[in-house]
Structures are given as C-alpha cells and as structure tokens.
Amino acid sequence: HAADAHRTDLMTITRFVLNEQSKHPESRGDFSILLSHIVLGCKQVLPNSLDLLEKPMFRQVVDESKSLIILSLGEEQKKLDVLSNDVFVKALVSSGRTCILVSEEDEEATFVEPSKRGRYCVVFDPLDGSSNIDCGVSIGTIFGIYMVKDSQEPTLDEVLQPGKNMLAAGYCMYGSSCTFVLTTGSGVNGFTLDPSLGEFILTHPDIKIPKKGKIYSVNEGNARNWDGPTAKYVEKCKFPTDGSSPKSLRYIGSMVADVHRTLLYGGVFLYPGDKKSPSGKLRVLYEVFPMSFLMEQAGGQAFTGKQRALDLVPQKIHERSPIFLGSYDDIEEIKALYAAEEKNE
Ligand code: P6P
User: Fold this and answer.
1) 177 lines ligand 1 (CB under 6 A)
2) Disulfide-capable partner of 121 in 50, 102, 146, 181 (CB 3.0 to 4.6 Å)?
3) What CA–CA distances, in Å, run from 74 to 50, 70, 129, 224?
C-alpha cells in the first residue's frame, strides 16, 4: 500500500509545522497557532484575487458596514490591497499570538491591545505586486516573523531588528496554483493548496537553489541609472567573456513570482539602487528580509551592494534597500564587482 501513502498520509503544512515544533519541546505551540492564522489569511485572500479575474467589470463588494459598494475593476484592484490587509490584520490579531504588526499598507505599526497580545511580531506585504492583478500575473503575500523580547511594553525596536533575527519567513503565491513557501530556520519547504481539501500539501520538500544559474532578472528599463558594478554584471550576463553562453533575461515585475522562479530554477534577482533611487525600491522588513532569509536557507545568498542583506539594521519600518539575491556563485560574482569598486574608490 506504499503507493497509496501520498493519498492516505498527507503531509499538510499544519502537520509539518507540528513535526517541526516537536523538535523544540520548550515551545508552547504558539508558533503553530500563529502560522495557522497566516495560512487562513492566505486562503481568504486567494478567492478574492481569483474572483476579480472571473467577475465582470463591476462587482458587488460588501464591506464591514455591510453597505453594498459597486466598484469598477480598477478601483477594486486598490480595494483588494486594502481588503487583503484587513484580512491579515484581523487573522493575526485574532490569533492572540502577535504583539506588533507592520504592513506595507499601513503607515504606522499596529500595537496589538494587551488582552490579545502574544510573543510574535509579524511584518508583511499582504498583496505584493498587486498592480499586476488586471493582467493575471501571479502576485503574493510576503511575511516575516520576529519573537518579541518584552511583550509587556513593546516598542518599535522589537521590529527594527536585522533580518538574521527572524524566526521564520515565507510567501504565498497566488498564480496558476497557490503555493506557500516557508522557512523556520532549518531549510525551505513548499506547499501547494489542494482546493478539494482546502489544505496546503507538502509538494517541494527541502528546496535547494542551484549553485549557479542561467537566468538574470532585473528591470533593464532602469539601466541608464545603474551604478558601475550593476552595469558591469548585467553586461557580463549578456556578453560573457569566458566563452559561456549568455544568460536568459526573465523579469515578471512581481517579486514573489520572480523570486519563486529564482528559488526553483536558479540565477539572480536584482533590484539595485541607482542614481535616481540610491536605496532601490524594495522594502527591507517585508520584501528584502523574508526573501533573503529564504534564499540563504535554500543555499543561496542575498547582498545589498554593501553587506549581507540579513545583517542590515533598519531604522524605519518602511525603509528600502537595494537587493541582489539568488544562486550562491552568481551572487559571489556581484559581490566581487562591488568589492573591486570599493577598492578603487
Ligand atoms: P518595477 C511590485 O510593484 C513590486 O513591489 C515588486 O513586487 C516587484 O519586484 C517590483 O515592485 C517591480 O518594480 O520598478 O520593476 O516595476
């Protein structure tokens, strides 16, 4: 009956996390409860984003005040960002395991009321890449989790921590299939939603990124503003001087989709700083750190142009940073180009 195991012995994300937790007897199960609420949030967002693609141009949306709102798809797209944020904030607060929430959608951090407070801080982008909804490109939720030091009188310092202090990080990609990718600090695992069960099933155990890749992913439209090392690296991808074949360019413009492809196929994803935006575009807490954590756990690297991305200490919750992440050997080449420039300065 071994052949039936995949049917009768399903490894769901819940079972997987409980197995992980059994390795840490001191834990009180709080993390498993927190994660189950994040997973619930993703399942709630998924139908909304897919609904949008199926519904006619106008949809009836019933909001908290139960009033009927008729929105054009364009407005709905903005609404979906806000809806997704509401879903996650409510799911995280109701878990009773969170203390501070930082969302891409909220200017200020949310301090959970004492009666519902727990030991974790969650930083998240509820619907990253949402400008791509109308054309059906994959989008996703990105999150990172810190443990608070003082949940009695929490301050922003609890979340202005380097990414290396994160306990866990992951993303949920809403695309042709719904894929949840997670690290809790001992490797990376991918789960695919089985709609008939409403469960995420382990489909990509122990993901390892290829040591070197054949793909580079960057918005070439910013090329005229790039600094020397970035320009040199991209030139090398297109016109290799060591007799190797040129790399392929794949750029979707939705971070979760570009990073997921990089994790599975190898290569590099770059959002460099440039003359116009020295800190680049992507946010440290809920884009750069979670994706960098996943990359390192999968055997890759993540670099800011100056340092290891996870060593960065953010000063503000919506701070940006340049990011170069992906296959170990490819990132080594980028680091060497930046080191050479620093030496010449
Ligand atoms: P650009 C989407 O808006 C996003 O925040 C990321 O998901 C994506 O990687 C990046 O911006 C794309 O930015 O400037 O290339 O359009």
Assistant:
1) no
2) 146
3) 15, 12, 15, 31
Please report the pLDDT score of residue 54 as a whole number: 46
What pLDDT sits at residue 23? 76
281 lines ligand 1 (CB under 6 A): yes
20 lines ligand 1 (CB under 6 A): no
The rounded Å distance from CA 16 to ligand 1 centre is 32
Confidence of residue 3 (pLDDT cuts 50, 70, 90): low
Cβ(199) – ligand 1 distance below 6 Å: no
pLDDT level of residue 136 (50, 70, 90 thresholds): confident
CA dist., res. 171 & res. 267, Å (int) = 19
Of ligand 1's listed atoms, the one at least distance from the Cα of 258 is 9
User: In this structure, what token pair is assigned to residue 193?
Assistant: 């939603």
Query: Does the Cβ of 118 fall within 6 Å of ligand 1?
Result: no
- Residue 332 is encoded by which pair of tokens? 């080594």
* First and final C-alpha spacing in the chain: 66
Ligand 1 atom 5: the closest Cα is on which residue? 129
The Å distance, Cα 219 to ligand 1 centre, comes to 9
- List all residues 6 or more positions away from 269 whose beta carbon is below 8 Å from its beta carbon: 217, 218, 255, 258, 259, 262, 291, 323, 324, 325, 326
> Which sign, positive or negative, has the C-alpha torsion 23, 28, 30, 36?
positive
Q: Lowest-pLDDT range, 9-13, 37-41, 88-92, 327-331?
A: 9-13
Our mutation pick for probing the ligand 1 site, out of 81, 137, 281, counting the most ligand atoms within 8 A of Cβ, is 281
Q: Single out the residue of 17, 37, 4 nearest to residue 185, CA to CA.
A: 17
Q: What's the CA gap between 88 and 45, in Å, rounded? A: 9
Reduced 3-state DSSP string for 250-267? CCCCCHHHHHHHHHHHCC
